[in-house]
Design a protein that fits this description.
about 400 residues, about 10% strand, rod-shaped, disordered N terminus
């Protein structure tokens, strides 16, 4: 959700710079404006001094700068200090009005403070700042008996307030547009996810209703054939074949049930899932050494990484059952800051290799799944057995 929000905001508002760069740019503008205003006051008559209008100009610049930069520091913070900074800036601008009637620097500073208030602060407090600003500049001009007492300054402050309100409404509209786009994108993603889950559930039902039932019926028939052959003299070889076929059918049924669970979504963590696989293998071969090494601490992994390694563990142990039945197996899972490593290693089999029609597509599918995650898969003979090692990055690339 947050990632989608950032993506849409960048697309709508054109924000391509980092937050630090944006903050630096805003401060450069603030400092630049204050430097320009101070320079204008210094070079225009009566200038800056310590007495009379020059002294008032110096005081106005100091107070105005305090309010302007204070507002910059408190702009994104709620509370009374932000409002006080705005009022201090207005006071500084009002103090500059009498001595800058030719350049109107004081009026400009007051208008900037009002515009800033109306653009960011709620309309109520911003209105207080605007009324205070109009009163302050009106009093300042009347006190010094200008030709149009308070008229120009008051109108400029009022116009700044209206401009700030318009700007604030535009910013709110942009924010609402961003939120609407984010909600639309999230809704589409949820809809697609729901459709995918519904389709996977449908496929799981079909597999369960057809293949699982067929495998279950096959096992029943093989058990019946075994019972019949038990009473037939000289049928030991035939009975051994039936027993082997029944075992293969049982394994096929177990694999079918695992596939159904995968389609419907397995909510267990990766260590829990692998531990269950090891326990199932140990139940099939209780006298065979088995070990499972897992991280000392649970680490949160990407869902696609968890799913890929779950399928890899399933396929690796299925291959052990087929090609090295009864072999000792070691499963190890290691997680660090950069990658996840899963290793399934088996020794020499204690039984003859079983006939299979796999064709090697399981290993190809595992490799493709791991490579989609920018990982690597190594499967090769090591000593008397076989080792499958997969490494997958914990975090995805920008294009994922």
């Amino acid at each position: 959700m947050d990632e989608a929000r950032r993506t849409v905001r960048a697309a709508v508002s054109g924000e391509g710079r980092s937050e630090a760069l944006a903050v630096a740019a805003r401060w450069a503008v603030r400092v630049g404006l204050m430097v320009v205003l101070a320079y204008t006051v210094a070079v225009a008559s009566p200038g800056i001094g310590t007495h009379g209008l020059p002294g008032l100009n110096l005081l106005g610049l100091l107070v105005g700068a305090a309010g302007w930069f204070g507002w910059g520091l408190l702009r994104d913070r709620e509370g009374l200090l932000r409002l006080i900074a705005l009022l201090v800036g207005v006071v500084g601008g009002a103090l500059l009005v009498p001595g800058t009637s030719g350049s109107d620097v004081g009026v400009i500073l007051v208008c900037l403070m009002v515009l800033a208030a109306a653009s960011v602060v709620e309309p109520g407090p911003a209105g207080v700042v605007a009324v205070f600003a109009m009163a302050a500049v009106g009093i300042a001009e009347r006190f010094w008996e200008n030709l149009l007492p308070g008229g120009f300054a008051v109108l400029a402050a009022a116009a700044s307030y209206l401009a700030g309100i318009v700007r604030r409404q535009r910013l709110l509209h942009i924010a609402q547009t961003e939120m609407l786009l984010v909600e639309t994108q999230v809704a589409k993603e949820e809809q697609a996810r729901s459709a995918a889950l519904a389709e996977r559930a449908r496929i799981a039902r079909e597999i369960h209703d057809v293949l699982a039932h067929s495998m279950g019926g096959l096992i029943v028939q093989l058990e019946a054939a075994d019972a019949l052959l038990e009473t037939v003299p000289g049928a030991d070889r035939a009975r051994a074949c039936v027993i082997r076929a029944r075992g293969l059918a049982g394994e096929g049924l177990a694999e079918t049930r695992r596939a159904i669970g995968a389609l419907r979504g397995d909510k267990r963590s990766l260590p829990e899932f692998l531990s269950a696989l090891v326990e199932d293998y140990q139940a099939d071969y209780p006298d065979v050494p088995m070990s499972f090494e897992e991280p000392a601490e649970q680490s949160e992994l990407r869902p696609e990484v968890t799913l890929a390694l779950q399928r890899l563990g399933q396929e690796a142990l299925t291959n052990v059952r087929r090609h090295a039945p009864g072999a000792p197996v070691t499963v190890s899972l290691a997680v660090d800051e950069e990658q996840v490593e899963l290793v399934v290693r088996n020794g020499a089999p204690s039984e003859a290799e079983r006939t299979t029609t796999g064709g090697g597509y399981g290993l190809i599918g595992m490799r493709e799944r791991i490579e989609q995650l920018e990982g690597t898969l190594h499967a090769a003979a090591e000593g008397p057995g076989w080792t499958v090692r997969a490494r997958v990055p914990r975090t995805g690339t920008e294009g994922d």
